[in-house]
Write a structure and sequence with these properties.
elongated, Rossmann fold, 5-stranded mixed sheet, 264 residues
């Protein structure tokens, strides 16, 4: 029986970098030779979710949403667009397994810690505040909850004296980072899949490291000028967590988790 992996991303009609992490993780997994096929599809870009079944030929397919949390897209949009009716859908001689989104996996804590260490090499975490940035607002409750869950897990490890969930549009605001933190080093990690408009345009302005909105992430140096010297502090700003290569392992872990839970 041939086996395929389909990674589902959101995509964007405005941001040229939105789909890049999904394509990159797919290529990394493809090179490992674990599946006969590895494909991507998107909500806002091509190939669309409804087109993917014309591109994949395998008998058994694992679908993993490259999303930061459960929510409207993972619970409603993706099942509807892919024609899924439960954890496993059998259709036209094919078995399609719907896995949990990457952001739900316990290893996301490891991914966040790795990204924080990478963006501030050689910096003592015991003299650093770690801020994990979410969007906020009632439109994205699950995403906000995902940020809080990660903050609780990392804080419990005792690596950083301050670990805070901050948001763009609800308190505690990322723009208030100076009064929220007390350590000489501040490490900021956006809890988003891609370097979209928020991570390379909005958040830098809210942090005060940019005076105005800049170009797309692929054309910007905002992630490469660390540390930023602000108000007597050293601020380190990371790219979105979804650009971390370790996400490829998390995707595979979600497939294994499905197989273990449902005994495929």
């Amino acid at each position: 029986m041939s086996k395929a992996l389909v990674i589902v991303g959101h995509g964007s009609t405005q941001n040229p970098d939105s789909s890049a992490p999904t394509w990159e993780r797919a290529e990394e997994i493809r090179e490992r030779g674990l599946f006969d096929e590895v494909a991507c599809c998107f909500w806002k870009e091509e190939p669309s979710m409804r087109e993917i079944w014309h591109a994949v030929e395998s008998d058994e397919v694992f679908v993993v949403p490259n999303f930061i949390s459960e929510g409207y897209f993972t619970q409603t949009v993706i099942p509807r667009e892919l024609g899924l009716d439960g954890p496993t859908t059998e259709r036209n001689g094919r078995r399609i397994h719907y896995c949990e989104p990457v952001g739900n996996h316990a290893r996301m804590t490891e991914v966040l810690l790795r990204r924080a260490a990478e963006v501030a090499p050689g910096v003592d975490p015991s003299a650093s505040s770690l801020l994990i940035v979410g969007h906020g607002t009632s439109l994205n409750d699950n995403s906000a909850r995902a940020v809080k869950d990660q903050v609780e897990r990392i804080a419990a490890l005792g690596i950083y004296p301050e670990v805070l969930a901050v948001y763009m549009e609800e308190a505690p605001l990322v723009s208030d980072w100076l009064t929220l933190t007390s350590q000489p080093n501040v490490v900021v990690v956006p809890f988003f899949i891609a370097d979209g408009l928020h991570s390379y345009q909005d958040i830098p302005v809210l942090l005060g490291i940019r005076a105005e909105i800049g170009p797309a992430a692929s054309q910007s140096d905002v992630f490469h000028q660390n540390p930023y010297k602000l108000h007597g502090r050293d601020l380190y700003y990371a790219a979105a967590i979804g650009t971390e290569p370790l996400i490829a392992d998390v995707i595979l872990e979600q497939v294994r988790a499905f197989e273990s839970k449902h005994a495929t």
